[in-house]
Amino acid sequence: MHKQYGLNDLREMYLKFFETKDHLRLPSFSLIPQNDASVLLINAGMTPMKPYFRGEEEPPRHRICTCQKCIRTGDIENVGKTARHGTYFEMLGNFSFGDYFKKEAIHWSWEFLTKRVGLDPDRLYPSIYVDDDEAFDIWNKQEGIPAERIFRFGKEDNFWEHGSGPCGPCSEIYYDRGEKYGCGKPGCTVGCDCDRYMEVWNNVFTQFNNDGKGNYTELVQKNIDTGMGLERLAVVCQDVDSLFDVDTLAALTKHVGEITGVQYKTDAKADVSIRIITDHIRSVTFMISDGIMPSNNGRGYVLRRLLRRAARHGRLLGVQGTFLAGLSETVIQTSKDGYPELEEKKAMILAVITEEENKFNKTIDTGLAILNDQMAALEAEGKTELSGADAFKLYDTYGFPRDLTEEILEEKGLTMDEAGFDEAMQAQKVAARSARKTSNYMGKEASAYDDIDASVTSRFVGYDATENESVVTVLVHKEDAADYGEIVETLEEGENGTVIVPETAFYATMGGQEGDFGVIESVSGVFTVKETVKLQGGKIAHVGVVESGSFSVGDKVTLKVDKANRAATCANHSATHLLQKALRTVLGTHVEQAGSLNNAGRLRFDFTHFQAMTREELKAVEKIVNDEIRAALPVVTEEMDIESAKKKGAMALFGEKYGDSVRVVSMGDFSIELCGGTHVKNTADIVTFKLLSEAGVAAGVRRIEAITAENVMAYYENMEKEFHEAAAVIKAAPAQLKTRLTALTAEMKELQSENEKLKSEIAKNQAGDILSNAQDVNGVKVLAARMDNIDMNELRNLGDSLKEKLGDAVVVLASVADGKVTLMATATDSAIRKGAHAGNLIKAVAGLVGGGGGGRPNMAQAGGKNPAGTDDALAKAVEVLKEQIH
To answer: How many Cβ atoms from other residues are within 10 Å of residue 159's Cβ?
Structure first.
């Protein structure tokens, strides 16, 4: 019997094993793909390695091993229903980029499973691609596996490819978990759908290139891509039923049980909810730790959906109030050894979860109110099926879960149009896919940059210089961003293009800092650099135009950065470091950088926080930053390894990929951050700092815009100019501006009050004239009238007044003002009981005035842009009411 290793033990064992095989251990990449638009979230261990597999970027070493955080939501509807499915998992991987191949990969996988982990060799079964005789011979002749224990499978099972690009056959290893996990059928063996034979290892031999048309050619650089699910390996090693019984997940299911009072595996229906909560809180915790914030699109929508789904199932188990942050603490506690960033970001993670869960608790109450109105409307109309469009709106707009809608409808003897819902869902998915560019293997628009030799790289030498000498290594003629472009030997005068050199003083846009601009000069020409960008593989591209002469590959050049632009950008970038520390001091340690933009004109800083900052908080932050500027703190930059940087207290950024050596920027003892950007030498060089604005940009994310140095002086000069111009407009001396404005405001309020009184009197007089126009429709008074130049608030007041005077009634009013139409309908309770529905009435007639709208049975409104249809809309309203009232 093998030892039952814990999940965290297995992760470390695997990585250490491959370090002994000369592999470089890399930490998990962020769940946010870098420079890869083909996926929304990292969903496999090899996904961040694509540039290395393609030869577009030189890997730090040709042998690498990782344990990669992954999220897949393609089968989210099955999560919880079965114990097999989950959205979050960890993928162990050992990779070879043109180094070792099949022999070593197969041997090491067998050695690790049998010798290091101690699995019984007689319970392990390899599979190979049907035509891969080379792999068969290695398993059979070198590892000694009998032929009858080696399974050959076809392309669907044992050949990995994803559209065009690198691909190849696979060799998987299955573990026989024993008859207790089997289906009991006589033919049960490797490949059966039951849980007895579990795949634990997959060696992918990427030896071919698919041109996308079914043509395969041998790759010059053959690669190894190994994938092994950590949770699956733990299931086998711990001999448990499913991934939810593995030690770290079992701690979570137990915690869920303590909160809900429902123990796992005591009730099949409750088990579904427990598994959903357990799985989703893992995904949520890791996503937030990587800087993903809840939103209504993209990755943020995935996060919001997972979190709300977990919260919904907590309600099903009887939980009142928030509870997910407590579960997240268990995730952090059981995973922080492998992912220390979880502990570092703990305050922020828990704050985001709590804020979003509170929002959902309010949302679900709103959704219930809307659904109740919809059910009342169905009952009034004698219908039993809620339209798919209405159900999807509840789901998509209000975050109301589909299963909850179906459950509540079922309790009332009603149903939902599932086909209509699915159709609306599919339309949304198609729109989302079409919004994502997927032009090549990396999901980017293909360009000539992809054709540059991977060995070409650039080194930035501009931390302490704004000028350097170098040699042109690559020229690309590219007229604009949409142009594919062409690698050329020469760029002529007037041509747009890109210059690449081995060493440059130009900083490329990254880390929130905009790139430098300036000029590149040679004996034969001048090239104006309009932007500097980072390309795949560490290349720095100077993008611009040949102003005079020409440039050829091999030319010696002098690169000159615009010094004034660099200095202003440095001041703004350094100020963001002071700003982040000031925000954490004033607001709390949940504040994390969620994005930034620094250029010569301003700085923009996005950060995690859950409410608008008060005036007092803004003043406190601004004061702290200016105090540190006046303190003239030395700005010191040091290079060190990541662990030393963390011990020093340096803050890391969300989703950033750090190498073996990192730059630590310290501003006295006040601020210490990891940063690769350019900075001032002393905080006094920033001169001064001025906050311009603070606003929300996404759920849980605020944005500050600010300026420094000369930009502050320009700001106040402009303010003074506008101040004098404003005084001149109202004919007041600048010193008397406030007094004069106060008097004018009081005078204007008095005139507005008189105007409102006159409008109200006119409207009441018109209302008195139209009461006699009310019609009797099956015992209900129906009044449809037009009253122009009256706003919506006054229309509603009039509607209530007329309704009260008429008794059992429905009132429909229309008003035209400034070329726009306003419609309002209101109905008494007695009229509603007889079938009247103001919301459906407005829906039916709004199109005639070129608009749309709706509302509740007792009150609805709409707007439109076609005044010519107003009278027709009122006439149709009466006809609709005749059909409604019975």
So the answer is: 19
Residue 112 has pLDDT above 50, yes or no: yes
pLDDT digits (tens, 9 = 90+) for 183-197: 889 889 998 988 899
Cα–Cα distance between 101 and 63 in angstroms, integer? 11
pLDDT exceeds 60 at position 654: no
**Token pair listed for 328:** 């997240």
Q: Specify the DSSP class assigned to residue 114.
A: I
Retrieve residue 795's tokens: 């229309």
Q: Is the pLDDT of residue 144 over 60?
A: yes
Cα–Cα dist 362/731, whole Å = 51
The per-residue b/e assignment along 608-639, b for 16 or more CB within 10 angstroms, e otherwise, is: bbbeebeeebbebbbebbbebbeeebebebee
Percentage, residues of the chain above pLDDT 70: 96
Both structure tokens of 325: 């942050």
3-state secondary structure (DSSP) of residue 189? coil
pLDDT over 70 (residue 438):
no
Q: In Å, what is the CA distance from 753 to each residue of 322, 606, 626, 702, 793?
A: 47, 42, 46, 38, 15
Residues 6+ apart with CB under 8 A from 761: none
Tokens standing for 478? 């590219």
- Which tokens in the block code for residue 727? 């005084």
pLDDT of residue 768: 57
pLDDT one-digit tens code per residue, 352-398 = 999 999 988 887 878 888 888 888 888 888 888 999 888 888 887 77
| Sequence-ordered alpha helix ranges (H) in 771-806 | 792-806
Task: Decide: 237 and 10 in contact? Cβ < 8 Å.
Answer: yes
- Rounded Cα distance, 222 and 240, in Å: 37
Helix axis angle, 7-19 to 247-260, nearest 10°: 160
Beta strands in 569-714 (DSSP E): 593-598, 603-608, 635-641, 661-667, 671-674, 689-698, 701-708
Residue 263 to residue 184: CA distance in whole angstroms: 29
Query: Is residue 242 within 8 Å of residue 264, measured between CB atoms?
Result: no
> Which are the contacts of 233, defined by CB distance < 8 A and separation ≥ 6?
10, 92, 117, 200
Secondary element (H or E) of residue 810: strand 809-817
Q: Give me the pLDDT at residue 228, please.
A: 93
Q: Kindly tell me if the per-residue pLDDT of 884 is higher than 50.
A: yes
Distance from C-alpha of 64 to C-alpha of 226, rounded to nearest angstrom: 11
DSSP state of 515: P
Contact in structure between 67 and 335 (CB atoms under 8 Å): no
Of 798, 832, 826, the closest CA to residue 812 belongs to 826
Beta bridge partners of 201: 173
DSSP bridge partners of 595 = 606
Q: Using the 8-state DSSP alphabet, how is residue 869 labeled? A: G
Beta bridge partners of 551: 491
Strands 809-817 and 780-786: parallel
Q: What is the pLDDT of residues 745-784, one digit of tens each?
A: 888 888 888 877 776 666 666 655 678 788 888 889 999 8
The residues that bridge with 503 in the sheet, in sequence order, are: 459
Burial of 296-330, coded b for 16+ CB within 10 Å and e otherwise, reads: eeebbbbbbbbbbbbbbbbbbbebeebbbbbbbbb
The predicted model scores a pTM of 0.74
**Residues contacting residue 731 through CB under 8 Å, at least 6 positions apart:** none
Dist. CA 376–CA 374, nearest whole Å: 5
End-to-end CA distance of the chain: 78
Residues making up the chain, counted from first to last: 886
DSSP 599: -
